[in-house]
Design brief:
By secondary structure, the chain is of the alpha+beta class. About 15% of the residues lie in helices and about 45% in strands. Keywords: Adaptive immunity, Cell adhesion, Cell membrane, Cell projection, Disulfide bond, Glycoprotein, Immunity, Immunoglobulin domain, Membrane, Repeat, Signal, Transmembrane, Transmembrane helix.
Length: about 550
Amino acid sequence: MHFSSCLCALLVALVYQVSGMDTVIGLYGETIEVPCNNGAPKPKDLFMTKWKYDDGDLLTQLKDQDASVIATDKYKDRVSMAENSSLLIAAATLKDEKTFTCMVVAGADISEYPVKLLIHKAPTGVEITALATELEIGKPTQLGQCRTSDANPAASITWFKNKKPLVADGKGIIISSNVKVDEATGLTTTSSTLQYTAEKGDTAALFTCGALNTLSSPVSFTVTYPTERISLHVISKGPLMEGANMTLKCKADGNPPPTSFNFHILGKVVKVENSDSYTVTDVTRESTGEYKCSIIDNAKMEDSKNITINYLDMSLSPSGKVMKSFGEGLALTLQTHASGELKVSWTKDNGKLDSSPKFDKLTYSDSGKYEVVVTMGALIKKDSFELVVEGVPVIRRVAKRRSEDGQHKVLTCEAEGSPKPTVAWSVNGTSADESPYVNGKITHKLTIVPTVNLTVVCTVSNEHGQDTRTINVSTYSSDEGDTTKLVVGVIVGLLLATVVVGLAYWLYMKKSKQGSWKTGEKEDGSTEESKKLEEKIEEKLEENSQKVEV
């Protein structure tokens, strides 16, 4: 009676455990641990633990004893029991996918804990085979077959383009899969075929396939499509100008591109095979015009371009070395002819000029090297001339002064002429100083100590002639006498001027008095004024007389 009630209770427990059965996933070829009662601690009154499966018992363990293997089949050498009563199965295979039950006897209770075991295996690799040789736009083509093997459960394959998954749409993307099972191992091999309709943008696309976390090596394909448009390009180093070579290149957007073209060179057709380029050598301004290129087997597919050959002509007159005389005029002519807008700049002796030079009346300062630069974009032309203005030298000024120490006389002779004049003095000096020759001008200084009064001559000369000027130089005592005479002369002059003014006024007043007498008018006031004026004149005369005496 007690056994029956226990059996009923056991059946109820078994039904409950099966309905809540645990599942354990193990890896193929590895040792798998199947927990008893989900790894719960052993009961204190444990008597026995036993593992079994549908075909029989595997092993048992009594309290405080080692586990004993009961199995006599394939599990005989592959099973053992862990310290926590878990079942250990070595070298797991797909044939181990079954339900294992842990039976625990504790006191008067018997409990069973079934566990479902699943064996998984990742695929050994993923690769793409049976690749298409090329893809043609708009044409469905079997791109390739992706294959992965030795997996459980069967692997699911995904196709990618540029790392983005492809989704079958039944039109441009068609994916079909197939799974085969190895009879010996039970492992599966999955293959997936991709049929793909290429687009123009797939030229550089990378295709891969993957299963779980494993990806194949990327593959790319040559995508072919017909030419829809061509374009003409001009290749040259710098701007196109006369004398340069011009290369015409015809580009087509087809793949593969055409290999032969017709080039239309100013109305003349040139057939070029196995090349997309044609070079026109030594172009001239007459080469300006419309150029075309077209496909040989489709003349309607063409492109054209108007090409301008840049040119720049410049003529400068005069040029080279120009010799002119002082005071002459020089006509300067710059003629230009170009295909675009020009910019003209002038320099003189490497210094920039604000405007074009004009030479109405030449001076020595006009001498120098003149260069004109004419530019049009990147085109540059230059020309130059050297102007030399020559003439008879002329002395512009002679002067004398005392030196700073007061012991010498410094004579100065300033002259102008070209070529550089030679300066000569009629006397010898203690030292001579010559300024730099700039713009046809030169200054020569001579220091002397005169012992007598003399006349000094400055002579300047060059190959065209000479000029002379004189200057009177006196000794220091003569200079002092000359200074005294000069002062006396000035004072006497002032005195005579005062006398003349006073005499004139006196005569005027005398005539005025005679007129008054004739009319009988009283002139007392006028007489008084005349007396005062006479007194002032006398005082002025005395003052000047005193200055003269001094």
